[in-house]
Amino acid sequence: MDDRILNSLRRRTELLGWTLRRATQHTTQLFSVGPRIEAERNVAEERTLIDVLMPGHAPDGSPACGMGNATLLPHEPVEPAIDRAIEMATHVHNPVHGLPARAQLPDVPLEDKRLVDRPMETLRAAHEALMTLASRRPEVRVTAAEWHARTRETQLLNSRGQEGSQRETTLLVEWVLVTGEGEARAENFVGREVRRMADLAIEAEFQRQADMAIDRQQAGPAPNWDGKVVLRDAVLATFLNGGPIQFLGSAANRYAQLTSWEIDKSVLRREGAGDPFTVYASRILPYGIRSSRMDSEGIPGQRVLLVADSVLKAFSAGQRYAEYLALPATGEFGDLEVPPGSTASAELLEGPHIEVAAFSWFNPDSVTGDFATEIRLGYLVENGNRTPFRGGMLIGNFLDALGDARWSRETGFYSEYRGPTAVRLTGLKVAGRTAG
Amino acid sequence: MKVDGIALPEAMDRLRPHLGETVERLETRSPYAAVWLGAHHGMSISIDRQEEQVTEDEPAAGAVLTAFDGQTFRERSIGSFQPDALASEAALLAQTLSPSNGRRLVMSNGPSGRHDFATSMEIPPESLSVSEKVDRCRQLQERLGKVDPRVVNTRVFYLERVESSVFGDRQADLAQQVHRLRLGVFVFVRQGETVRYNWCLKSASGGWESVQLGDDEIDATVETALRLLEGGRIEPGEYDVVTAPGVSGVICHESFGHGVETDMFVKERARAASYLNQTVASPLVDIFDDPTYPGAYGSYYFDDEGLPAKPTRIVENGVFRGGITDLGSATALGIPRTANGRRQDYGRKAYARMSNTFFGPGTSEFDDLLGAAGDGVFLEKWSSGMEDPQGWGIQVTCHLGREIKNGQLTNRYFTPIAIAGYVPEVLQTVRGVGREVKVEGGSCGKGHKENVPVSSGGPHMLLRAKLG
Known about the structure:
Strand content of chain B: 35-45%
Radius of gyration of chain A: 24 Å
Largest sheet of chain B: 8 strands, mixed
Number of helices of chain B: 10
Number of strands of chain B: 23
Structural class of chain B: alpha+beta
Distance between the termini of chain B: 44 Å
Distance between the termini of chain A: 57 Å
Largest interface: A-B, 81 and 79 residues
Number of strands of chain A: 20
Largest sheet of chain A: 6 strands, antiparallel
Strand content of chain A: 35-45%
Oligomer: heterodimer
Number of helices of chain A: 11
Helix content of chain B: 10-25%
Helix content of chain A: 10-25%
Shape of chain A: globular
Shape of chain B: globular
C-alpha cells in the first residue's frame, strides 16, 4: 500500500475512519468475426480508492457522520484527492456508523492460474478449440466470439486495522452461433461469466448451444400455456439471480423501507404448494463469480442463510446498515446457494410442461417480483414430444413462483449459483405469439 | 459546439501534442494507426428520507493505441496519460506488428487539423458548489415530502458526468468535452404488503438548466405511484396501443437501433442486413440516429474513431435505408462510415453503437391518436428493453400502462406490461404518428456489457401489439 496515502490519511485526525483499496487489473481480450481475428487487446489499469468517514451534526444538532470517497489514478497527487473525499463527506449528515473491525478473512479460491500467467495464449487456445468444435458441426457456424480474461488484485486496509488482499480472475465469453441462411437463418447468442476456463466446459457448452441454435431455427410459434414450467441449469441460475431476492433481501433497502420482507416472516406473498424455499447468499463459494475474501468495505466473505423454509433469517448488510438495523454485517451480496430438493429431476420432467431454455432477458420488477419476459427458446413437452418454440411471454410473479416450486435432488455449479439442476414451477402463464 | 480550446484534464492536455509522433512511429509497422485518449469523471447525489449520499463516481482515464491493417485491430490500452508509459505501450504494440512497407490505409475521417468541441451550457455544473447541488436536491426532496401518508419514501438523485476525449491519427487532432446530467425522483408507496413505485427523470447533455423538474411533473409522479397501488396485470392479448415518446423510443432502439448496428451485419446477427431498401414498416415510419441532436443525453461531436458526428436516416417512409457503422464493420462491408464507433472507455474496443435514436415526427395530435385507438392501452412509461437483431423479436417492458376507453384515458392502470412481437409486423401496424418528438436518456449495453450513454425517443404513436 502506498505509504504517502497512508501517512496522509493518518495525519487527518478529524476523520472518524478511512478505508484504502489499491486495485490493479490486467485484461486480455480476443475478438473474432467468422474465421478472422478481428482484434486483440491488452489493458493495464491501476487505481487507489479512498473512503473517508467524517463526524458531523444533523440539522437538529444530533451527532451525525458522512462518508466521502475519491479515486486516485496513477501519478495523481494525493492530498487533493483526500480533500475531495472529505469535502463530499462534510455535505451529508447520516446517523453515526463505523467501519468493519479487524477480522480474519477466509481463503476462497478465486483464480485460474493459466489466466493469470498466460492469458492471451490461453484465450487463443480456447478459441481454437471452439473453432475446431464448430468445424465438426458444419450446420452451425461461429460467426463471432469474444474472450475477455481479467486478473484483478486488491489490497485493502482500514483505520480499524482490517487488512487483506485477494487475487481473482474472471473470464467473460460471448459466442454467436448461427445456422441456416437467409430467412431460415437463426442464431443463438451465448454469454457466460466464470472464474476459470474449466468452468466453461467448452465442448459440452458448445454442443448444447449448437443444439439450441438448430432448435431455434426449427422452432414454431409459442403456445398459450397455463401449467407446469421447468427451468434447468444456467437458465435456472439466471432466474434466481433476476433481482428480487437481492433487492428484497438487502438491509439498505429495508432501512429505506423499500422492501416488505421482515426477519422471521415469510418471504412469500401467499402460501404455496411447493417445497419450502431455502437460500444462502455465499461469498465463499469456491470460484463463485461474486465470491471474495473481503468485500469493498473489508467485511470477510461468508455464507449467509437468507431464507430458511420460506422465512427470512437475515438481510444482506454492509457495515452501515448492519449498525442502523442492529443486524450482523454480512457484506456484499454473494452467489446464491439452494439446498437439494427431494425430487429426482427425471420426475420433475414428467408430464406435459414447458421448458424455458433461454430468456431474451429475465428482468422481473425487483420490488414486486412481477414479470412478463420474452422466451427466446422454449420447448413444449407433451405426449413424448419435445417441440421447440420461440417468442411468447412467460408471465407471473417471482415470489409466487418460488412458493410453488419443486426442486430437484441433483445439484450443479453455475458460477453465480449452486443448487438443484432443475425446478418445476406452477402458476405461470405463457402468452403465445406468431414466431418470426 | 465548436470552440477555441477546451479545459481538458491536465495530463491529457499535456499528452495531446505528442500523439502525432506516436501515430507516425506505429505507422512504420501498420497501414493505419490512431490514438484515443478518454477520461470521465463525475459525481452523484442521492437524498431520501432516511439518508444522504454524495459520491465521486469512479473515474476512468486512459489511452488506446490502435494499429489496423484493414483486417485486424491490434490495441493496447493503459490507464495513464504519462508520455513514457504511452511510449512503452507503443513499443510493445509495435513488436506485434510486421513492417508496413509504406502501405497506407486511407480513412475518410473528415477535416484534418486541430478542432475542439464542448457542450453548450448556460449553467455549467462546475459553477455550482457541491453544497449548492446538495441543497437543491434537498429542496426537491422536501417538496416530495409534503404528500400522501402512503408514500413511504422518496428519493432524489442527481448524476453528473464530464467526458473528455482526444482523437489523433495522421491527419486529425480532435478534442471534445461533453457534460451529461441526470436528475430524477423516485416515489415509493405502500398499502398493506403492496409496495409500488414510480419515477420521473430528466437527462441531457448540457448544463444545470437542462435538468429541472417542474411541480406538475412531481405531482403527476406521486399521483401515478399511488394509483399503481390499485393497478393490476393486463390480460395477455393483442391491443391497440398508443405509446408515449419514451416507449416509442425503446421500441425504435431495440428494433431498428441495435438491429442496424453494422458490426451485427458482419457477425451475421442482423436480419436487417438482407432488407436494405426494402419495406420494413408502415410508410408513416421514419427512424434516425443523430449524435448531433441538441441537448440529448447521447450526443457528441465526433465518435471514438475520429469521425465528425452527423445524422443517419435509418428508415425512410417505412423503407430501410442503411445502418450505423464503426470503422471495422464499414471496412469489412465496404460501406460508408457513420459516426457511431463508440467505446465504453479506454479498456474496451469500439463497436457500432447508437447515439440518439428516434422515430421521426408525424402529423397527428395525441388526442386524435387516443380517439383512433378507441379501446386500447396507453403505454406511458418504459422500464427496459432487449434486442434480438437476428430473430427480430421485441422485448420491451413498460412500468405502466393506462386503459383507453372510447378514445379517453381512464384511471385504470396496469403494471408491469411487456410488449412482444415480431419487429416488422409491429412496425407495419403503425397507423398514427404524433407531431412532437421527445427523447429520453439512458445507458445502452451491447448484450450485457459495453455501456454507453444514449437517448431514444419519438412522438406518440398508434400501433397494434401483443401485451402481457
